[in-house]
Specification:
Blueprint: H1 6-25, H2 27-54, H3 56-63, H4 72-78, H5 81-97, H6 101-126, H7 128-152, H8 159-178, H9 185-203, H10 208-218
């Protein structure tokens, strides 16, 4: 799970300086940048979470051995913390650029307290899977608290609209994967990649100008909030 967080964490760090500058010069451009970044994060993290959920038992078996297959359920739950945290980090950066550090610290404390309350309730009945559910619930809570802060400041992006395309792609891929269980693991992985890629493109989750923007970020160029297609 730590390895899966490296890419969105690095992406968030790369765009923060531009977000900080735009927040002080143009609120409109800052919002355009946030929306573009969120679309890219969702287009990357939701397919990753879907892959982890589908191939959880294969991943656990290959890396740790068959004696740890019981952890597959926990991995399936934890997989969905990746999209939540990717969005959460970007909204946190947006709030930090707006000088909302004290509110950020307060909301993080609320989420931590909720986690400490949930774990003793969930672990006795479900074991380590209960701890995974507690983490997922608290990540969702913290994301909701961040979004509420931005809503109050009239700077909240429309998350539902941004979620629709990658969620539709994930659902299509889950359905296709359920029908291909008889295939070997390499063929299932290949089919997953093909179906997910086509579904993301067809649903509009991936846009050419977003890919140009991402290339500029990777190449350490100054990311423009509204980079036109080449």
């Amino acid at each position: 799970m730590v390895a899966a967080a490296l890419a969105p964490g690095a992406f968030n760090s790369a765009v923060y300086p531009t977000l900080f500058r735009l927040t002080r010069t143009s609120a409109t451009d800052a919002m355009v940048l946030v929306v573009r970044c969120l679309r890219l994060v969702m287009a990357g993290s939701i397919p990753l979470a879907t892959m982890l959920a589908i191939f959880a038992s294969n991943i656990i078996g290959l890396i740790f051995g068959s004696q740890f297959l019981a952890a597959s359920i926990a991995l399936q739950v934890l997989a969905w913390t990746r999209p939540l945290r990717g969005v959460q980090w970007l909204l946190g950066s947006q709030l930090a650029a707006m000088d909302q550090q004290s509110a950020l610290a307060r909301d993080r404390s609320v989420s931590l307290c909720a986690f400490l309350m949930l774990t003793p309730l969930l672990i006795p009945g479900t074991g380590f899977v209960g701890a995974a559910w507690a983490l997922l619930i608290c990540d969702a809570l913290q994301l909701g608290l961040y979004w509420r802060l931005l809503k109050r400041a009239e700077s909240a992006p429309a998350l539902t609209k941004l979620l629709l395309a990658p969620v539709l792609a994930a659902m299509a891929t889950l359905g296709a994967s359920a029908m291909l269980l008889q295939l070997s693991l390499p063929l299932r992985v290949l089919a997953f990649c093909l179906v997910m890629g086509v579904s993301l493109w067809a649903a509009g989750a991936i846009r050419r100008q977003d890919l140009v923007f991402l290339r500029n970020v990777v190449n350490s160029r100054e990311p423009s909030p509204d980079q036109p297609p080449s």
